Amino acid sequence: MAKQATAEKRPRRERGSINPDDIIKGAFELAEQVGIDNLSMPLLGKHLGVGVTSIYWYFRKKDDLLNAMTDRALKQYVFATPYVEAKDWRETLRNHAWTMRKTFLGNPILCDLILIRSALSPRAAQLGVLEVEKAIAGLVEAGLSPEDAFDTYSAMSVHVRGSVVLQRLYEKNLAAEGSPSLEDSMVIDPESAPLLAQVSATGHHIIAADDTNFEYSLNCILDHAARKIEAGKKGKGRARD
């Protein structure tokens, strides 16, 4: 069942004793208890032991608070994510992808703030631009054109984010409704679908983006980039001849 939107009441603070950092920190604490969807200003005021007007003094609406939380979450995430190195681009890009996936799957609040919320504050968006720029620069140095480097990183990023969001939405729906997923409700008849029955029996998932599916698709992206780099090297060699 979904967590009920409640907050532990703290001793009342003195007027003027709260600041934006305290509010953001408290919002993360409360979100861990009730989730981003159920986070509200009144609940946060109760959690922090202040009147709700003290919060509105710094954050006029919930979206402003969520933007500030996203800023902080994205900054921590960017600093914790390895960049792509030209000398070992394939392995570092793979590690980059897996680190993104594990980080988001391991932190539902981070996932909800950065991936599911569509509105990012300008500062958060700028942090994302700087991250992508560094990764693309590494791929260009490895031998891809800027266009192919962008397409490669973009494909990897979309693959990571899509797989994580699907998993997170599955968890949210299951918690809210207690109903099985589409895949869980599918009945595979070995007589009419022998191939699906065979792969399902060995642990493969048809719809869910599990680690096996994720690795397969990631390898397809990396293999395509490797072919592009190799073709570029051959093209340069012919030009010198």
Automatic annotation (TrEMBL):
Keywords: DNA-binding, Transcription, Transcription regulation. Residues 17-77 form the HTH tetR-type domain. The keyword DNA-binding applies. PANTHER family: HTH-TYPE TRANSCRIPTIONAL REGULATOR RUTR (PTHR30055), HTH-TYPE TRANSCRIPTIONAL REPRESSOR FATR (PTHR30055:SF207). Residues 1-16 have a biased composition (Basic and acidic residues). It comes from Mycolicibacterium chitae. It holds the Pfam family TetR_N. Residues 40-59 bind DNA. One of its GO terms (molecular function) is DNA-binding transcription factor activity. Residues 1-20 are annotated as: Disordered. GO terms for biological process: negative regulation of DNA-templated transcription. The keyword Secreted does not apply. This is Transcriptional regulator.
